[in-house]
Write a structure and sequence with these properties.
This protein is α+β, with helices and mostly antiparallel strands and 112 residues long. Helix content is 62%, strand content 12%. The protein has 5 helices and 3 strands, in the order ααβααββα. It has a 3-stranded antiparallel beta sheet with strand order 1-3-2.
């Protein structure tokens, strides 16, 4: 088991990470284009639990509807690609996330 697996294996009940799904998808797509199953696997590694198709695909459809994600077909696979507005959006989201949670990261790290 890797350190990341250990970290995410016991997600506290108080931490509902569903609200970060769109952000997490966009972040993963900054790395490379992915098809749905790949995204689910990577999200599982990142968050400790794979989203089910009923959660993942509506989120992808919404990101596509908002122009943040585009799709491309290769054979039977549908790849999700970060659109230019998605690239801009994920940078803005990262800046916002860091601003909002900076104090938590600083305080948490101060005790170690």
């Amino acid at each position: 088991m890797t350190e990341k697996d250990e970290c995410c294996s016991n997600i506290p009940d108080c931490c509902d990470m569903r609200g970060l799904l769109s952000f997490s998808i966009l972040w993963l797509l900054t790395k490379r284009d992915m098809y749905g199953q790949e995204l689910a696997e990577e999200l599982g590694k990142m968050r400790g639990k794979r989203p089910n198709p009923g959660t993942l695909y509506p989120a992808l459809k919404e990101l596509e509807k908002r122009g943040l994600v585009e799709t491309r077909k290769e054979g039977r696979k549908k790849f999700y690609v970060l659109a230019e507005s998605g690239r801009t959006g994920v940078v803005e989201a990262c800046e916002y996330f860091c601003t909002v949670y900076a104090d938590i990261f600083r305080e948490y790290g101060a005790d170690e």
